[in-house]
Every structure is written in structure tokens, then in C-alpha cells.
Amino acid sequence: MNTTILRKSVLGIAGLAFAGGVFAGPVTEAHAAPAVDAKAVAVVQADKPGKGKLIPHGVQGKQSRIDIGAEQTANVKAIIAATKKSGMDERAAVVAIATSLQESKLENLGHLGARNDFDSQGLFQQRPSSGWGTVEQITDPEYSTMAFLKGLKQVDGWKDMPLTEAAQTVQVSAYPDHYAQWEQQAADLVAKYWNS
């Protein structure tokens, strides 16, 4: 659990208790329920991934956003599930989702013929010829996410890097700065689906 969120929650609860005592005087049993409700809200907020955890370095540059449909939402959930399975945290899911937003707009793409970048396919536009796996493997959302995260784990200090630098170190894209534009939407998606 993020210590900053925990500290704010504890201080908020303590502040509510203090304010209740100062302004309301002794609490009767009939008025005790609001204090319990305030505590429950604070606990729920503490369990939700916080903005600081999801975007620790702040977003860089102008942010892009797309509407996502059912298939893309399913792919977001698959990326989050694979991130959890790999033992990585919410920030890794943000990096993975932002990377997929840039590479495929969260669509599990097959070979695009003349529009394709060499033999790139799947959510992360990974290439069989570059050793990412077979076509069947890299078009499997769980496999492709696990392959991306394995690469991310090997990036020394990736948690301390801006998102675009961490993603680029794994992907080796011709457009290394383009990942940054998806950080806010990726963080929003992780916040929405991490606990679902």
C-alpha cells in the first residue's frame, strides 16, 4: 500500500474524529454512524491505485486519448491480469497499456500486409523475426504482455524512468517519444480496471 495514501487516510480519519469532538461535543450513539462511514470511505480510497503511484513522474507533453470498445477493454483487462500474474505492480501495467495504445491502439493486430511494419503483430507490434515468439504466441494477449513485461523487468531502473524511456528501451521503436502521449489514458484505465 502506498504510504502517502495511508498517511493521508489516517490523518483524515484523525482529523474527522478531532473535528467531530471539537464542533459537536460528546457524540451520542445516534450520531456515531457518520464517523464509521467516513472511516470506510477513507479505507476504500487507500486501496485504489493513486495518481502518484500510476504517474510518479507526471505526464510528459500533450496527451492523446481514444475511445475504446469492448475488444480493447478486454485487452486492457488481459494486460492487467498478465501484469498481476508476473508479480509486477500498477505502474508496470500503465507502461504496458501506454505501449499498446501507441503500438496498436489496444487492438490485437494480425499481419497488415503492405501497411505492416515488417512482421510486427499483436498488441505490442512484436516481431517473430526479432525473437518475440511465434505469430500465434505474440497474438495471444497474455503471452505478448508477459513478453513485454519480461523485457521491462530487465531494464535497470525502469521504475525511475519516464514512461516513454522505459517503453522505448523494451520496444526499440523508430518513434521513441510517442509513448508519452498515452500515459494519462493508460493510468486512467489501470485505475478503473486494476481491482475489477
Q: What percent of residues are in strands?
A: under 5%
- Could you tell me how far the N terminus lies from the C terminus, measured between alpha carbons in angstroms? 17 Å
Global shape: globular
What's the multimeric state?
Answer: single chain
Mean pLDDT: 77
Low-confidence stretches: 1-48
| Percent in helix | 55-70%
Major β-sheet annotation: none
Overall number of strands: 0
Cα-atom Rg, whole angstroms?
A: 21 Å
What is the H/E order?
Answer: HHHHHHHHH
Q: Can you count the helices?
A: 9
SSE class? mainly alpha
How would you describe this protein?
Helix 4 (70-85) packs across helix 7. The model is unreliable at 1-48 (pLDDT under 50). The protein is globular, with a radius of gyration of 21 Å. The protein has nine helices and no strands. It starts with a helix and ends with a helix. The protein has 196 residues and is mainly α.
